[in-house]
Amino acid sequence: MEQNTGEQISANAPAPDAQAARQAGEHIRKNFASDNVAPVCPEILAAIGEANVGAAPSYGADPWTAGLKARVAEIFETDAAVFPVTTGTASNGLALSALCPPWGAVLCDESAHIDNEECGAPEFYTHGAKLRPLPSADGRIDPALLARALNGHADRGFHLSKLSALSVTQATEWGATYSLEHLREVTDLARGAGLGVHMDGARFSNALAHLGCSPADMTWRAGVDILSLGATKNGALAAEALIVFDPVRAVEMERRIKRAGHVWSKQRFLSAQLLAWFADDLWLRNARNANDMASRLARGLLRQPGATLPYAIESNEVFVVLPEPLVQGLEQAGYDFYRWTTPPGVEGVLIRLVTRYDTTPDDIDGLLASLSAVA
Amino acid sequence: MEQNTGEQISANAPAPDAQAARQAGEHIRKNFASDNVAPVCPEILAAIGEANVGAAPSYGADPWTAGLKARVAEIFETDAAVFPVTTGTASNGLALSALCPPWGAVLCDESAHIDNEECGAPEFYTHGAKLRPLPSADGRIDPALLARALNGHADRGFHLSKLSALSVTQATEWGATYSLEHLREVTDLARGAGLGVHMDGARFSNALAHLGCSPADMTWRAGVDILSLGATKNGALAAEALIVFDPVRAVEMERRIKRAGHVWSKQRFLSAQLLAWFADDLWLRNARNANDMASRLARGLLRQPGATLPYAIESNEVFVVLPEPLVQGLEQAGYDFYRWTTPPGVEGVLIRLVTRYDTTPDDIDGLLASLSAVA
Amino acid sequence: MEQNTGEQISANAPAPDAQAARQAGEHIRKNFASDNVAPVCPEILAAIGEANVGAAPSYGADPWTAGLKARVAEIFETDAAVFPVTTGTASNGLALSALCPPWGAVLCDESAHIDNEECGAPEFYTHGAKLRPLPSADGRIDPALLARALNGHADRGFHLSKLSALSVTQATEWGATYSLEHLREVTDLARGAGLGVHMDGARFSNALAHLGCSPADMTWRAGVDILSLGATKNGALAAEALIVFDPVRAVEMERRIKRAGHVWSKQRFLSAQLLAWFADDLWLRNARNANDMASRLARGLLRQPGATLPYAIESNEVFVVLPEPLVQGLEQAGYDFYRWTTPPGVEGVLIRLVTRYDTTPDDIDGLLASLSAVA
Amino acid sequence: MEQNTGEQISANAPAPDAQAARQAGEHIRKNFASDNVAPVCPEILAAIGEANVGAAPSYGADPWTAGLKARVAEIFETDAAVFPVTTGTASNGLALSALCPPWGAVLCDESAHIDNEECGAPEFYTHGAKLRPLPSADGRIDPALLARALNGHADRGFHLSKLSALSVTQATEWGATYSLEHLREVTDLARGAGLGVHMDGARFSNALAHLGCSPADMTWRAGVDILSLGATKNGALAAEALIVFDPVRAVEMERRIKRAGHVWSKQRFLSAQLLAWFADDLWLRNARNANDMASRLARGLLRQPGATLPYAIESNEVFVVLPEPLVQGLEQAGYDFYRWTTPPGVEGVLIRLVTRYDTTPDDIDGLLASLSAVA
To answer: Where, residue-wise, is CATH 3.90.1150.10 in chain C?
Structure first.
């Protein structure tokens, strides 16, 4: 399977008025397009309202941001530098800029969001570093290919962009999750060759819920230097945490963020979202529901004649190859999802179905029933 | 008066827990540090809650964003391209990148936020363009100095960075407001020399309320190509509208925004803030209150022996020179504000007092009473 | 065959004194490391001396540079913009910066010098555009793979870097040469999809001598927008001509060059080299000799048992797989050349032998005799 | 006196053929436009010819480059890193990129070449750092103004571009030369505030000849971290030495140079120029002649009624204010020079006359005689 074709702008956006918007709301039960079509989860919306009291120092000097740093230290069992930002693309770009000089190169998977879905944001933030994608079966870096890419590059001298960072995606773009052993194997190779390690954790909580390990085990104890931790796909309004485990990498990060226009003047509203997301394990509860719904969906699809699931279901994305008539049938039944690029040689159509923190068993069963009805 | 020393991180941020935060809330009546220490105004917070229904297409294909474009067209009486973004720094950087090539230069006032408070964001977004500050009395570009800067630059050939844009700030960093005549005089000069015109409108609504003219009159009819329209300082959570009047300048703006990581996946929550801000003239009502409170404050200060107001009060900022003991007295009375760089030769201390959409006459009278008590 | 491992810094550079340097001169007959280890050809050195008379306007306003523009117009049968620069890396970077915006992507061959040997210069000059390498058999873009890469990219919206340029290398890094038909096939595909076309002509003269066509036929008539024409590898001291056939692409090129520090103050000495190179067909005579010597070498190698030539010999590079003992034997006999990355599964060692304008039949026969003696 | 208007492209460039060029050669005796209109001095041209023997390793691994490093160590009495490049603009940009991060700022004089004549090259190389010009009487940084600019900047936090480097020009753009005491005073201030120090030495040899001190005294012993040492204006074909005294600043400089396309494949011809320039004190002999001719010219001008020399004559540039009829008279007599921007309030016309390594007493006396004839 070759390349992630991404989340295109939906062609059938609802009409631009509030009533149409509310009608669109009714269709949420049939929307499997992405985790970011969801509304904000109630706890996080409430936290924004609770933060809306009184004056607060601007630009991150507020108590919510200070509280966030303490909370992350607790959860990740280490004194990391934490920078709340708005989007995963910004978080990834900032992280890579701290790991890779302008004349450097970043190794990543060929399906990586940073190389396929961010319109060159890593190149913008790093001032022109190169991404070097490696092929893989399911978005997880193959240690043998990584070793080969690393081998001998140091002897090439200044003609070659300097390999400076490895970026791994956990969970991957295909819904697979690195085991801790796999993760450590690739980070060991990278660090042994002098590279820093970035983790794109847009669906970090889903992977964490799947593995059942600690946040520390899946990050700095496994050789990760910087984590882009995403909350927006899992219930937040717009909130990501850039977490830098290696203090040297955090130097001047505020200036990197400021000059990109990513420091909120009213930053309390960014930090408050993340605090609510961490409170009472909301992040994990949300992730577990999304993962469970994906498993329920996958089990149902496997019972469907003609359906093939090319990837392991280890987070909240389900890729499935279905015969064209079934795909059309789902579309006609009002379901929203993306057709992916079907690999050459595969019969049928590859589609992606994403489950969310607010997906219910009824939503899943409804889709499966629709599919059976079409078939 | 020489240079804006900016909004430093407050040294006495409250302790990082919710109770302390609530206590800090009580001090809001004495906080004149900035317009962005304020909470979100209730109408905008409510609009965020109302937008939180159902699924919405991500990345700007939602009905709120479509509605915003229609609303802006109505308000500005023209079919402009509109891009909601999170911060004024991003909005300014994006605007300048569409007006000035990497080898170009932007003329601006020496007090301009883009040159003094954004840690090089314009240079980041333009890929290295140069800012050329011009001196002024109160942040408004002097037509004579502008003419002189423009004169003859075209003959200098490729050794010189190409003068490509003029950036004006309305209202200025010192609280003054360009008249329409003044504005047109400088934009005519700039456009006559082939430059594009950007308006930093972080306090656009305050200037608009002061002049009482139409948004169209203060922008494209006055020769402005791109407006960075700020809502955050005037009641929003985090929302600015980048408005491009010249369609040629809007080409590929989405890609500029995307690669900077400034496209929200759940963009409805960005657009909904702006829709609420425009609804029922909220933006103007908020601005009028802030302006009125600044005038009330200024009138009171002028009655205070030893106080000097170096600038016209034409928006919501009051700069005042006070004897050091009075400034200390205010600080000891619990008031929050910034000490500015006092120009050489001036006796006393220059401080900045900012009024807001939620400042009340009692707040003003309280400060004036404290000042009298100290004096 | 997978990836060009480039021209590493030679480990055995001669000692840093003039005598040693002169001794190194004696070894020139055994040096097949690269075309750029050669001295300047006498006609070009003489032209530099002849230009060294009197005062000349600086920064390109000299008569040699004006003469160069006229000469190029004559040779290429069109009124192109011509910019003499020092290195091929600068010329390529400048060309791509005029074809591809910072948020764009350039399609090229996986062996391309721009992606493998220039330490990210294209990314530097374009301010962060992405290179998208396509696999090939011998460095020539495969039309089918190109068509697939182009297909559907326009529908992806702003998440995807915009495909903006195709870069072809003529002759390729593996010594093969595009036929005019092949060239037009790929440029037609690219232009049909809205991309500009760049030709890296570091060995343009060798390809031209091989094909025997006109410079116009191999460039703008074949759909090329910008040519990086290299003279340094074929006899010049340090001189390349950046030739822009599409006048729109040449706008502000002087400023691009100036801000990169590539405008010579005494530019007459750059232009004079190129004028001499074009005079009396020197460029083609030099190229023909280098090509002929490569053919002679290839014919000899094919008679050598155990030797395999993986690529067509269509310029002045000869790649050959030899048994390790033979490679060592050549090294011990004092020959200078590069060991390349031998593709997996291939027995023996891949080496590169480069012939030059000053390579003689005796040099070739000497190497072949040494090889026979070792075998 | 306000701003250097630079070296414009001469409008009356000779016609583009060899004969016209030779005629232009005859006018060299009347050309005072710039030091870079001169031909290459014979010793350097000869050295290029002498280097043109045999094969040499490419990209700087040649013995000439190794010899250059040894020679610089000897001359500067320290083991500096040395990188030969083609132009002063490249050298300055590279130096600043090693001293100042993208979010940083460089303090320089308002007349500095880096801010006025390089089309944003420092911004290109630093990826968007800001230049902060300081006013001065004659291009030499005023310690009091420097101290004021440095004062308090560290407390401003991340909103402000980080002051990272000071760039001084020796000799200045106005022909004045820093004394060692003045130099040390400003570098002490800069270093005390954590800034690195760059010296733009386009006319370093002229300043050195004027002061009569050692190269070490005028650089690293005076607090300079990186020197851009120019030879092109003083006899070379195209050669500048980037000399890095602080080894930490030299890390990855090769990659910075390579990705800018400034590594020559035949670098021996770059290093050979510099070796010849240093040999037998050629650089100082050339500089002394140029300086002496400037002094002779200045003495003559002072005898001319109506002439005013606004700056000290401490290198090879003579700025003089003359009545318009005299300036026109010189032009009509065939003299070549630049009219500068005459400061407001000054009567007459400010022109610049530059003397060179090959200027003769007869040239000077001829100009003075012409002037007397006109007057």
So the answer is: 18-39+283-374
Which residues 197-256 in chain D show a CB within 8 A of chain C?
232-233, 237-238, 255
pTM of the model: 0.95
Q: How far is CA B61 from CA B66, B239, B277, in A?
A: 7, 17, 20
Please report, as a single letter, which amino acid is at residue A166.
L
Query: How far is the C-alpha of A336 from the C-alpha of C170, rounded, in Å?
Result: 48
Return the H-helix or E-strand segment holding D297: helix D282-302
Q: What CATH class does B18-38+283-374 carry?
A: alpha beta
Please, are residues A310 and A321 in contact by the beta-carbon 8 Å criterion?
yes
Question: Residue D104 corresponds to which tokens in the numbers above?
Answer: 């940083």
Q: Please report, rounded to a whole number, the percentage of residues in chain B having pLDDT higher than 90.
A: 88
SS3 content of chain D, % helix, strand, coil (to 5): 45, 15, 40
**Interface chains of chain B (3 or more CB pairs under 8 Å):** A, C, D
Nearest CB among B103, B127, B259 relative to C255 is that of B103
User: What's the pLDDT score for residue B51?
Assistant: 97
Give backbone dihedrals phi and psi of C143, rounded to 5 degrees, phi first.
Answer: -55, -35
DSSP B342: P
- Residues in C touching D87 (Cβ below 8 Å): 261-265
Tokens standing for A147? Answer: 């070793």
Write out the residue limits of the CATH 3.40.640.10 domain(s) in chain A.
42-280
Contacts of C8 in chain A (CB under 8 A): 155-157, 159
What would the pLDDT profile of D12-25 be if each residue is shown by its tens digit? 333 345 555 555 55
Give the C-alpha separation, D263 to C88, whole Å. Answer: 10
Q: State both tokens at A27.
A: 């269709």
Residue-wise pLDDT tens digits, B96-148: 999 999 999 999 999 999 999 999 999 999 999 999 999 999 999 999 999 99
Q: With contact defined as beta carbons under 8 Å apart, do B241 and B83 qualify? A: yes
Architecture of domain B42-281: 3-Layer(aba) Sandwich (3.40)
CATH 3.40.640.10 residue ranges of chain C are 42-281
Helix (H), strand (E), coil (C) string for chain C:
CCCCCCCCCCCCCCCCCHHHHHHHHHHHHHECCCHHHCCCCHHHHHHHHHHCCCCCCCCCCCHHHHHHHHHHHHHHCCCCEEEEECCHHHHHHHHHHHHCCCCEEEEEECCCHHHHCCCCHHHHHHCCCEEEEECCCCCCCCHHHHHHHHCCHHHHHHHCCEEEEEEEECCCCCCCCCCHHHHHHHHHHHHHCCCEEEEEECCHHHHHHHHCCCCCCCCHHHCCCEEEEECHHHCCCCCEEEEECCHHHHCCHHHHHHHCCCCCCCCHHHHHHHHHHHHHHHHHHHHHHHHHHHHHHHHHHHCCCCCECCCCCCCCEEEEEECHHHHHHHHHCCCECEECCCCCCCCCEEEEEECCCCCCHHHHHHHHHHHHHHC
CB A234 within 8 A of CB A34: no
Residue A67, number of CB atoms within 10 A of its CB? 21
Residue contact D120–B103, C-beta within 8 A: yes
- Is the CB of D102 less than 8 angstroms away from the CB of B118? no
- Tokens representing D249? 């600043």
CATH fold group of domain A18-39+283-374 = Aspartate Aminotransferase, domain 1 (3.90.1150)
pLDDT interval class at C12 (50, 70, 90): very low
On the question of pLDDT at C11 being above 50, the answer is: no
Task: Compute the distance between CA of residue C370 and CA of residue C336 in angstroms, rounded to an integer.
Answer: 13
For the domain spanning D42-280, the CATH number is: 3.40.640.10
Does C13 contact chain A (CB < 8 Å)?
Answer: no
Q: Where in chain B is the domain with CATH 3.90.1150.10?
A: 18-38+283-374
